[in-house]
Amino acid sequence: MSRPEKAGTPAEARWLRLSPLMLLVHPVHEVGRQIPVLVGAVVLGSATGNPIYAVLALVLTVVVGLARWFTTSYRIGPGDVQLRTGILQRKVLSLPRNRIRSVSTEARLLHRLFGLAVVRVSTGQEGRGDTEFALDGIEARRVPELRAELLAESLAGDEEQPAPGRVLARWAPSWLRYAPLSSAGLLTVAAALGIAAQTGLVAVLEDSEIGAFGAATVARFGVLGVVAIVAAGLIAAAVLASVLQSLLNYANLELRRDAEVLHLRHGLLRVREQTFDMRRLRGGTLREPLLARAIGGAQLDAVMTGVGGTGEASMLLPLCPRTTAEAVLDDLIGRPEVVHGPLSGHGPAATRRRWTRALALPVLAAVVLAVAAAPLWVWPLWAVFTAGCALLAHDRSRSLGHRVGDGWLVARAGSLERRRDCIEAAGIIGWTVRQTFMQRRAGVATLIAATAAGAKSYRILDVPADLAWSVAAQTTGWVADTTWARSGSGLR
Amino acid sequence: MSQPVVLADPAHKPSRKAPLVWAVSAAIPWSLAAIAQVVWLAAEPGPWWGHVLAAVGTVVGIAVFVGVVPVWRYRVHRWDVDDRAVYTRTGWLTQERRIAPISRVQTVDTERGPLDRLFGLATVTVTTASSAGAVRIVALDADVADRLVAQLTDVAALGAEDAT
């Protein structure tokens, strides 16, 4: 048997097997997946004094792993691709070839050791778990050929494999300095602490020498000193964790463009490779988390039909120098003024709303503190909090802006994470003008552009109400052509 | 900058029976809440202020959601269709105007819940390739809904684009 061969004649495609090397990989992964069961079996074994349970469970797991290879096969037919899986319950998954939107690959450590990769075929319907079309275990050197074959239908005319295209961006060590400034690092530390607390590590610590040492330190430096030391330690750990995570995920990242296809490849241990069809690109989103923005960092997401709007699937660049992110977006959409151009602000009403919202909480807190006759030392804290809220309001109102014309819509908003959404007008297939009660009183509205791409809806927050439809009409001409459109200033 | 554009409100109101249906559909859960309170009072006459508080809450809830909101919604709700777009205005406290071009319409569905059937109403949903762009025209008289669906499918068939 069995090296998978190039798919046979188009008329009579044969069922192919995945790489036989997976016979080595599957059992290991299966054991990894079934660890809870195996631990249970070991516990049962030692409780009954009969280790046979553990051995049986292990053997069964390995057999299931082996059986996965024997029961999985795929076929690339003229009109569709099919994947047949399932040990007890057989299942055939088939995708029409002209619906294939992207092919991505991923290789975990064991896969890389054997020179294998997982090939994922996506139609943009966002298959999860059961409905995901994944060929787990293709020889890495066969991947380019397979990718070209799978995408041949949707990327017709691109088959002659042009010379490797331009590299748009390549990872640089300096990108690491932005890594701690996303919130992911802090979350990691918090999660680790939570797990530690759950497993009773804290209880162990309390009775140990470290605990005694801690008590002694408290005695020496006072509570405040210890809190400061612990906070500093936490921050250091968070920084380290996020830098490490960023390094593992994104080192050797390369974004390459071959005419109409965009290739993204990144990861040190787990290599991920993704292909985007440029003709489905409807724009991009530049995101700037507050702290990263302070030192000139930004990240870039693609807005693409058939690709979700957030997370790994749509990421083009992780946190990197803002100039790099902007240059790449500019290169992709070829509209410098959309990427860099100035925005028109949303006026005093929108600004007022940012301020009332940000200051509502401090005012409420002040009332509560005054009524409860809080101790005097609370008030400086309150002042710091209020100042923070005021800065937030100022920054949020400064961020607000939009830009229309030339067939593009640009919207910017946010402070903690400022985002600039650049959407191609041709991709916009509907508009919503939403006004809450307070928005009606303030004379502003939220304009929402619906698209089939990315996050599906992109909003322009608190645009002056009488401007909302003008923005829509300037972006997509058909709005002005409907029977309800009244131009000029005669109405209302 | 081109001229400012304003969109006039859509022309058509939903069915005259719409406020009644909305009131009935709001009355069902609220009457269940009222019954639950009576049962509570019978089972445990407990602290009187708890019952009074709950009763006031229920009465206010019924007054607002059965009395006021259906009428308010009826005054807001409008819909219209021309040969280019579908246009609706919906909501009460938060109001929404939504427009979708007919050339990008993918499906036109009619939906009739049990209450709708009882009162002879229907809801028409026009979907586009964006999950955020579906336009729902609620509480139409059944015959109006049927005519609307026929009209929409007629016009939509003309545009044979990919619609994404």
From TrEMBL, chain A:
PANTHER family: UPF0699 TRANSMEMBRANE PROTEIN YDBS (PTHR34473), UPF0699 TRANSMEMBRANE PROTEIN YDBT (PTHR34473:SF2). Residues 69-148, 404-464 form the YdbS-like PH domain. This is Bacterial PH domain protein. InterPro entries: UCP026631 (IPR014529), YdbS-like_PH (IPR005182). It comes from Mycolicibacterium hassiacum (strain DSM 44199 / CIP 105218 / JCM 12690 / 3849) (Mycobacterium hassiacum).
